[in-house]
Amino acid sequence: MADLSARDVERVKFAFSIYDFEGNDTMDAFYVGDCLRALNLNPTNAVVEKVGGTKKKKEKILKVDDFLPIFSQVKKDKDAGSYEDFVEVLKLYDKSDNGTMMYAELEHILMSLGERLEKDELEPVLKTCCDEEDEDGFIPFEPFLKRLLAFKV
After folding, report:
1. How far apart are CA 148 and CA 142, in angstroms?
2. DSSP of the chain, one letter per residue?
3. Is the dihedral angle over the CA atoms 63, 151, 98, 133 positive or is it negative?
4. Of 65, 69, 64, nearest in space to 51 by CA
5. Is pLDDT of 40 > 60?
6. Across the strands, what pairs with 62?
7. CA–CA separation, 147 and 126 (whole Å)
8. Do the beta carbons of residue 87 and residue 128 sit within 8 Å?
9. What count of other Cβ atoms lies within 10 Å of the Cβ of residue 146?
10. Sign of dihedral through CA atoms 49, 153, 75, 16?
11. Which of 22, 39, 11 lies closest to 152, judged by CA?
12. What is the pLDDT of residues 75-100, one digit of tens each?
């Protein structure tokens, strides 16, 4: 935890307080992933589970002193992608080198690679984050990524 700046600690305490629904300086471990994402980290569900997040409510309760090392660990994780990493990946699908990709290809990627999404999970995300397809079925991918990474559930 010594690697966290005073600003990081304050940000963590503020985000933690938002998920302290009981007002007793605790957070249900069910919200660990949400809290980390609110702090601009991008952990996968597997990482959240590995660091102590739970799939069900009321299985585990954390104090802020329990959460600070979790934040520190996830912040150091080099496997979590950044906006720039995601842009580079989607450029692989930009056949015209103009910042666009096929909407259907994006849909396929999100349903078949990494932590796969089901069609019913994916539709609201795409509807919220994607621009309209052009007449050839292409969308600009950078606005999609910006909206996706800013999107909080």
Report:
1. 10
2. -TTS-HHHHHHHHHHHHHT-TTSSSEEEGGGHHHHHHHTT----HHHHHHTT--SSTTS-EEEHHHHHHHHHHHHH-TTS--HHHHHHHHHTT-TTSSSEEEHHHHHHHHHHSSS---HHHHHHHHHHHPPPP-TTSEEEHHHHHHHHHH---
3. positive
4. 69
5. yes
6. 27
7. 10
8. no
9. 14
10. negative
11. 39
12. 887 666 678 888 998 999 999 999 99
* The token pair that represents 115 in the structure block: 């932590």
Which of 71-75, 85-89, 111-115 has the lowest average pLDDT? Answer: 111-115
Is the model more confident about 78 or about 136? Answer: 136
Structure tokens at 64: 């802020």
Which one is predicted more confidently, 149 or 145? 145
Token pair, residue 26, equals 């605790």
The token duo for 51 is: 């660091």
Residues 6+ apart with CB under 8 A from 19: 27, 28, 31, 34, 35
Q: How far apart are CA 24 and CA 19, in angstroms?
A: 11
Query: What percent of the chain is predicted at pLDDT more than 70?
Result: 94
Enter the pTM of the model. Answer: 0.62
